[in-house]
Amino acid sequence: MKGPRLLVELVGRLTTRMGAVFPGERAVFRGLDLHASLKGLDWLELYLFGITGRRFTPQQMKVLQAIWSYTSYPDARIWNNRVAALAGTARSTGSLGIAAALAVSEAQIYGRGIDLRTSEFLRRAKTQVDAAANLTGVVRAELKQQRGIAGYGRPIVAGDERIAPMMALAREQGLDGGPHLQLAFEVEKILLAGRWRLHMNYAALAAALCADFGLTPLEYYFFGIPAFLAGMPPCYLEAAEKPAGLLFPLPCRILSYEGVARRRWRGAPMKPDASG
Predict the structure, then answer these.
(1) pTM exceeds 0.85, yes or no
(2) Domain boundaries in the chain?
């Protein structure tokens, strides 16, 4: 059924497999009672269950929690945190400031956009290698088509300070041997041995771990949405504690202006009084 008949069938009805609330009685979350069957889940476990419909091991949860924690920097110079801080200095509400900061975290080069492309690349590369393709050829083809590989290279410095502690935790939890993770490091070896000299960055590591935990690219994207969140409120609050407008002020003299030069404004000629 489709078209108008389908619309008529859905008038006044919500058909869902995700959940519903029955006020005064219960709340259903993916078919389970939120306050009974799921009452023991912490917030991240519930969040992931909502995205995937699956449960994760305690070891996986520790790594997934760290993927968020290890990249929550309370630095107002970072592009999305700056939005939260500017909201604070402009005396906007905290909710609006954080929502705006999360929205700009969608950045295609270093935000959620790169996460999605990294996950897709690693899964695609693994599928090709499993089908007997040569990984070096896969890497070269990706570089030729995309002019880069998502998850490799960093614009400021070559290394990534988050990789060592994340790998230490993955080893501690016995989760450092997954096929996507191994492939991610093999890709780095190829890129470093060739003329590209690109190191793996945090996006590739996190995407590889999550792929090994069974997250699809879309599930990984949704998992990553709050990844920077913990660093945002401190930026907002610190800016809001100071007088309004003090965050990153820009004097006119440092602006590079190439428009119309300064000119004298003349008022319009006065019209004669009709009575005269």
Answers:
(1) yes
(2) 18-55, 112-224
